[in-house]
Design the sequence.
């Protein structure tokens, strides 16, 4: 079996994610600037252009997934929205993993006062009201864009990766391997790079999938509350807000964006689950990885 | 144990101070002030400069930031939060009503979560390995991937708007009519939002119940009990569930803080008059007293929840030693 075929049979969710992300990323190439689809080609109308002749029209040959209350093409908005939502989710996941991993490892490896400080920081982050942070950032000029929302989500979601990294570092500190590394004269950097990181990174990779799924759900919630990135720009969450306002007459507006979020979250969670349950063998150090729910 | 609790509480004090200080100064740093928000809410009336100034003076915003911060710290300790900037009513009863609504909603959600998870998990464990088990497991995994924002819209649309089984939103006439007392929420209004909060938890927790049960069903004493001719129902209730309870309680305890904080979306979709909706309203109206009071109370809840989760794990699992700093200090 070819490499790609094997990958597809082993991890259909990865393929699904790649296809979704790819199509969404290429959305600008698939759209024309006006309200009409391109002549004879598969070119979509722009996500922002109004088509007042077909307001709230159901899925048809002209608008494959229908239109919203301003006559904007839903397929086009879904793809452009996916571009924004996926960027927010993946960016937030990477940032959260980076912040959390660094702080968790610092606390776990250094111990003592550093650990205490890292722990207090996590507690503060857990107690801090997310909504206040969202609004504070949104009130800054230019604060209702993609990058600020990424940062906000990362700032509220880094504590779980931090706990994972800290627990793994602590576990390593209590093994004889640490003593032998120390006896062999390994410095801090070497211990981090050769001993701790190889067993922490797979865990963090798994957690990245979890955080990305959470970030998509958070973005959807904020969008639904009207607190997401500034409207006419589409995101999957913002599409849900429009869907809620026209729920009685336009089922397509609620169904398609919701399905897109659902499928992506399912794929991210499934990937994370596989990464967690799969044979993680890093220099023979780890036994069977902990089940994701067992934390 | 008492020593441990005391140490944890003492260690949390700086956290509380930092959270409150950050919230206080962050709120002041946000552009737009309460007087302007109040003026903007009076549509059709123009509010002149002098009136705005006197509003600001009444709100105590003309004092220095340091004075205001100290004033606030004292108020938090006394649980006396002054009057709302939005409608001039005292914050404390407002907060109590919102928290009561949220608490009753969460209680209903926890009830649904525990009831459904235990029954579904037991049901699946009894058929472990069958095709039925496999497919229900997959369906639950899919259910867990439905984001609450979409799930609550769908629930509202299908069960309330189309089928008419439940009211669309709100908490019923009793909720509106109550002046001072705390009314019991009407069950028909409670169902949908509670379900919207609980369904993901059910989908995540049922497989864990199933797994714990399957593991404890393999134990030798269960084979012995079966050999003695114990009926299956008793086998499950008296032996398997009891021994599976330990890991379930420790995982369940970690869900508690999330339940307390995680329903802003649901409360807004279903118009439930709880803390989540109050928070969004207060944020939009720059209602500092309400916001700070909410932050204070929710920070207390989260810290208590974290502590309670660790304590429950420590009580339920004899292997966990709370007093060893390496093991559990957060």
Sequence:
């Amino acid at each position: 079996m070819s490499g790609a075929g094997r990958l597809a049979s082993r991890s259909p969710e990865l393929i699904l994610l790649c296809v979704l992300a790819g199509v969404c990323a290429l959305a600008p190439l698939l759209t024309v600037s006006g309200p009409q689809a391109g002549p004879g080609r598969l070119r979509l109308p722009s996500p922002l252009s109004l088509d007042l002749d077909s307001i709230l029209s159901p899925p048809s040959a002209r608008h494959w997934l229908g239109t919203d209350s301003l006559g904007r093409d839903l397929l086009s908005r879904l793809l452009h929205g996916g571009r924004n939502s996926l960027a927010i989710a993946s960016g937030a996941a990477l940032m959260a993993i980076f912040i959390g991993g660094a702080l968790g490892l610092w606390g776990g490896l250094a111990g003592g006062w550093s650990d205490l400080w890292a722990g207090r920081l996590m507690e503060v982050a857990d107690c801090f009201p997310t909504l206040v942070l969202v609004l504070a950032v949104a009130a800054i000029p230019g604060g209702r864009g993609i990058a600020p929302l990424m940062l906000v989500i990362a700032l509220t979601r880094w504590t779980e990766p931090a706990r994972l990294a800290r627990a793994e570092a602590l576990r390593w500190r209590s093994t004889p391997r640490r003593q032998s590394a120390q006896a062999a004269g390994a410095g801090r950097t070497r211990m981090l790079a050769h001993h701790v990181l190889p067993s922490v990174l797979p865990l963090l990779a798994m957690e990245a999938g979890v955080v990305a799924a959470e970030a998509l759900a958070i973005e959807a919630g904020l969008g639904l509350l009207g607190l997401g990135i500034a409207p006419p720009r589409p995101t999957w969450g913002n599409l849900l807000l429009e869907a809620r306002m026209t729920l009685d007459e336009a089922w397509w507006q609620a169904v398609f964006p919701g399905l897109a979020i659902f499928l992506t979250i399912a794929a991210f969670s499934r990937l994370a689950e596989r990464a967690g349950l799969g044979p993680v063998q890093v220099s023979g150090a780890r036994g069977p990885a902990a089940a994701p729910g067992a934390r | 144990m008492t020593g441990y609790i005391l140490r944890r509480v003492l260690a949390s004090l700086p956290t509380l101070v930092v959270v409150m200080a950050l919230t206080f100064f962050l709120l002041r740093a946000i552009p737009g002030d309460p007087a302007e928000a109040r003026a903007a809410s009076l549509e059709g009336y123009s509010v002149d400069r002098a009136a705005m100034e006197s509003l600001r003076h009444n709100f105590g915003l003309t004092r220095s930031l340091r004075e205001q911060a100290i004033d606030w710290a004292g108020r938090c300790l006394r649980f006396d939060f002054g009057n709302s900037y939005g409608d001039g009513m005292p914050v404390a009863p407002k907060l109590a009503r919102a928290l009561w609504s949220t608490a009753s909603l969460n209680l209903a959600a926890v009830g649904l979560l525990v009831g459904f998870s235990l029954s579904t998990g037991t049901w699946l464990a009894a058929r472990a390995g069958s095709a039925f088990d496999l497919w229900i497991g997959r369906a639950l995994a899919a259910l867990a991937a439905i984001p609450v924002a979409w799930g609550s819209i769908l629930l509202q649309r299908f069960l309330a708007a189309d089928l008419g089984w439940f009211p669309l939103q709100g908490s019923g006439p009793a909720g509106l009519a109550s002046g001072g007392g705390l009314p019991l929420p009407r069950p028909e209004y409670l169902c949908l939002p509670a379900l919207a909060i609980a369904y993901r938890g059910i989908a995540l927790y049922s497989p864990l119940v199933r797994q714990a049960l399957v593991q404890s069903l393999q134990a030798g004493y269960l084979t012995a009990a079966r050999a003695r001719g114990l009926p299956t129902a008793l086998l499950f209730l008296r032996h398997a569930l009891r021994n599976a309870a330990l890991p379930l309680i420790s995982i369940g305890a970690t869900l508690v803080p999330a339940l307390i904080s995680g329903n802003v979306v649901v409360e807004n979709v279903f118009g439930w008059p709880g803390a989540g909706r109050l928070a969004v309203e207060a944020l939009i109206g720059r209602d500092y007293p309400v916001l700070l009071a909410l932050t204070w109370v929710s920070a207390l809840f989260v810290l208590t929840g974290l502590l309670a989760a660790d304590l429950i794990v420590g009580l339920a699992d004899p292997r966990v030693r709370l007093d060893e700093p390496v093991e559990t200090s957060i």
Observations:
- Residues 225 and 235 of chain B are 7 Å apart (CA to CA).
- The mean pLDDT of chain B is 80.
